[in-house]
Design goal:
The complex is a heterodimer of chains A (304) and B (350). With 304 residues, chain A is an all-alpha fold. Chain A has twelve helices and two strands, in the order H-H-H-H-E-H-H-H-H-H-E-H-H-H. In chain A, helix 1 (2-27) packs antiparallel against helix 11 (235-257), helix 2 packs antiparallel against helix 3 (56-78) and helix 3 (56-78) packs antiparallel against helix 4 (85-108). Chain B has a domain at 64-298. In chain B, 75% of the residues lie in helices and 0% in strands. Chain B has helices spanning 2-31, 36-49, 53-76, 84-101, 107-136, 140-162, 192-211, 213-223, 225-230, 235-262, 273-283, 288-307, 318-329, 336-349. The longest helix of chain B is centred in the first third of the chain and has 30 residues, at 2-31. The chains are: A mainly alpha (304), B mainly alpha (350). The interface between A and B is large, with 58 and 58 residues.
Chain lengths: 304, 350
């Protein structure tokens, strides 16, 4: 039981951080399917930076810088160059996974895995037994999740910046009339999203495993995107949804570790979040009066 | 610049952006110390000229083509079906159920049944997001994305539990193989039957899109739904049909995979197929002819990738770099807007 709680927290933290980034992009009206790519780039550069300097903080910084650059490029392609955000986002994800797998042998002469001798700080140490023992495997990033949720919540719900962001996402033409530059708002939103994706990736590669594996995100970025929608586009909803996805993954891990005595095959349990997301999107669409209240269906960003 | 891009026409635009992506990735390869000429030569051998190479290109291009024309049918009608992978997996498992469930029957009975079952399963899997979209306005990008995960887990269940090959010892779980008599192609995937199915699908879809009321209606609906509604077109039916056809074609690709090159099902096979097929549909300009060429190109890349280790130590992820760069750039419509944005910035700083 303690182990299940600890595993749930550990697996949901990277998803939650990326989902918080996704929330900011979502509110700017961007259908960000590039989260997967940014997350894996963050995971890679966090380890690469730590290996190069021996400092975890430098690793985090390297991850953030790499994700900022990737996010800025993504912005250039989808906003000034007007590419379709969905397809370009998928492209960013494929590039992220491809580029990090490519750099592994090219930079380090290694295939598959890059190990590092230190990870993120773990606040609880020196305990073996009980719940504290199980929780001692959690990195500082997991403990900071509530703070991140709070910051993003205040940012999008309680500041004028958040209001302008929502205006850009919901009605760019009106935002422009009010003197807000939608293109610039989207750039800032994507950069903020990039920082959170970098931290999410770092939480994955420096949090518990302390190594970068090829394609180590394994679709978690897409799951984070799902959590954004499942959570209704708000930070608290996204965090709760991430917890739920983390729990589903933890149950999967536990059943593989212990014995397969579940009444239902684990695959069907793992399907549940996706089915529930479809139901949630369906209901939120109904609540909006039969018309989808999501950003433009083809994902194109029109400034009006 | 955008006027120049418009003058290129859709074909020229696609080619120009793919070439630009190839140049970008070539620059990355050169910077990391690989000889682009060696790589290009290896790719040509692996995709075309080496013994068995073009067959492998066909083997990887065939499922891409089928899934991509499905994506194109939906996209022409204005719907974004990115659930090709899930529909492909569900179709493949349905085909396998028929293939393993009717032992002793002649292939001439089993194969058409299996293909129909696969198409029905794929169509049903696409029907759910399609129906939610046209009837209730539920965003289809999200629902089809989710359906990919569901389809992948379903395939995992079938390979790891339901039809697991008890003799299998490998790391990947796989199902029992279908009978040798039912196979329509060997590992290389080229046979009169597979070529015949693909040619028939290409001709039928071309006729459907260019020569039937459905094709015309869906094109109007995709370009301008408001006008289509004013003209009294029944968009719900057109949209739903587009989703059903899209899923059926992906399902058919799954059936070919089962009775063709694979002969059984392996958990999580061809995981990139769904997204690559979206790319093929768009690079191919949503036309059957263009998609044939684009599927051949991407199929060739896949085949070349498996051959490349013989000539160069290039990591296989280089292909993802190219695929991703093409996806990032292929829908770029305006370079002039970029110029304007930069110009404005310069003007402001002056």
């Amino acid at each position: 039981m303690e182990q299940l709680i600890a595993t749930t927290l550990r697996t949901s933290a990277p998803i939650a951080l990326v989902a918080l980034g996704g929330v900011i992009a979502w509110r700017a009206g961007i259908f960000h399917l590039g989260l997967e790519g940014l997350m894996v780039i963050g995971a890679f550069f966090a380890v690469a930076g730590t290996v190069a300097t021996g400092e975890v903080l430098i690793g985090l910084l390297a991850a953030i810088v790499a994700c900022l650059i990737a996010s800025a490029l993504f912005w250039v392609v989808i906003v000034p160059m007007r590419a379709n955000a969905i397809i370009a986002g998928l492209g960013l994800s494929i590039i992220g996974v491809g580029a990090t797998s490519y750099l592994l042998p090219v930079l380090y002469g290694k295939r598959g895995i890059l190990e590092v001798d230190q990870g993120l700080w773990r606040p609880i140490t020196g305990v073996q037994a009980g719940i504290a023992g199980a929780l001692s495997e959690l990195s500082v990033m997991v403990w900071l999740i509530p703070a991140f949720v709070l910051v993003v919540w205040v940012l999008v719900r309680r500041t004028s910046w958040g209001l302008r962001l929502a205006a850009v996402g919901e009605h760019p033409f009106a935002a422009r009339s009010a003197g807000v530059d939608p293109a610039r708002m989207r750039l800032v939103a994507l950069l903020a999203c990039g920082v959170l994706c970098a931290l999410g990736g770092a939480a994955l590669s420096l949090g518990s495993i302390v190594a970068f594996r090829e394609n180590m995100t394994e679709g978690r970025g897409y799951i984070a995107f799902t959590a954004v929608i499942f959570g209704g586009g708000g930070p608290i909803g996204a965090a709760v949804a991430s917890l739920f996805f983390g729990f589903a993954e933890a149950v999967g891990i536990q059943t593989q570790l212990v014995a397969r005595d579940l009444p239902v095959p684990s695959q069907f349990i793992l399907m549940l979040p996706y089915i529930l997301t479809i139901v949630a999107v369906f209901i939120s669409g109904l609540a909006a009066g039969g018309r989808s209240r999501l950003p433009g269906a083809f994902g194109e960003l029109r400034d009006g | 610049m955008s006027a120049r891009m418009a003058r290129l026409g859709p074909v020229g635009r696609s080619v120009a952006l793919v070439v630009a992506s190839i140049l970008l990735v070539s620059a990355v390869l050169t910077l990391s110390g690989f000889s682009v000429l060696t790589v290009a030569n290896g790719m040509w051998q692996g995709a075309v000229s080496a013994p068995g190479a073009w067959q492998m290109s066909f083997r990887w291009g065939a499922p891409l083509f089928l899934v991509a024309i499905g994506v194109a049918i939906a996209l022409r009608a204005g719907f974004f079906n990115i659930g090709g992978l899930g529909q492909f997996y569900v179709g493949a498992t349905a085909a396998l159920f028929v293939g393993l469930g009717l032992p002793g029957l002649p292939a001439i009975v089993v194969l058409p049944l299996a293909c129909l079952a696969a198409m029905a399963a794929g169509a049903l899997f696409a029907f759910i997001p399609g129906w939610l979209r046209v009837r209730y306005g539920t965003d289809e990008v999200i629902t089809t994305l989710m359906s990919n995960f569901i389809g992948t887990l379903w395939l995992q269940y079938v390979t790891a539990v339901l039809l697991k090959d008890p003799s299998g010892t490998g790391q990947q779980t796989a199902t029992r193989p279908v009978e040798e008599a039912y196979r329509i192609a060997n590992v290389q995937g080229v046979s009169p039957v597979t070529v015949g199915i693909l040619v028939a699908a290409a001709i039928l879809v071309w006729l459907l899109l260019e020569r039937t009321p459905f094709g015309i209606t869906s094109a109007i609906a995709g370009r301008n739904p408001v006008m289509a509604r004013w003209q009294g077109l029944r968009l719900e039916r057109v949209g739903l049909l587009a989703f059903l056809l899209s899923g059926a074609l992906a399902g058919l690709a799954g059936a070919i995979e089962v009775f063709g090159p694979q002969g059984r099902l392996v958990s999580g096979f061809s995981p990139q197929l769904g997204f690559t097929a979206v790319l093929v549909a768009i690079v191919g300009g949503l036309n059957v002819g263009g998609i044939v060429l684009a599927a051949a190109f991407f199929g060739g890349l896949q085949a070349a990738l498996l051959y490349l280790p013989i000539v160069t130590p290039l990591p296989p992820s280089a292909l993802d770099l190219l695929r991703g760069t093409i996806a990032l750039l292929i829908t770029v419509t305006s370079l002039s807007a970029l110029g304007r944005a930069l110009g404005r910035r310069r003007a402001r700083s002056d």
